[in-house]
Amino acid sequence: MTSKFGRGFVVNLFLLSRHFSLPPEQAFYGASDHVTEMQVPPSLKGTEVSELTERLKKLVIWHKIGINDRQDAEAIKKIINHLILAVDRELGIEDPDMGSYD
To answer: What's the CA gap between 70 and 48, in Å, rounded?
Structure first.
């Protein structure tokens, strides 16, 4: 069955990152649609990736649009960055780094 808002892990992480590249007051519209079918791969259950994914989902779902948009968007961007680094570590990259340009 085809997914309307994305299904998977990397796919949904990518879709969320697109939302949060927008200004904070626009970032949350439709963002929660992308966590509905976001799945942690079985090999990453019980890891930091799983924990960060749950934090990300909760923050996106519980956010009230128009209230603390800037703060919540920054928190979500930080979680996404930590999540990307955690995935790299799980894949065997010893010292992943986001770089200095963002």
So the answer is: 25
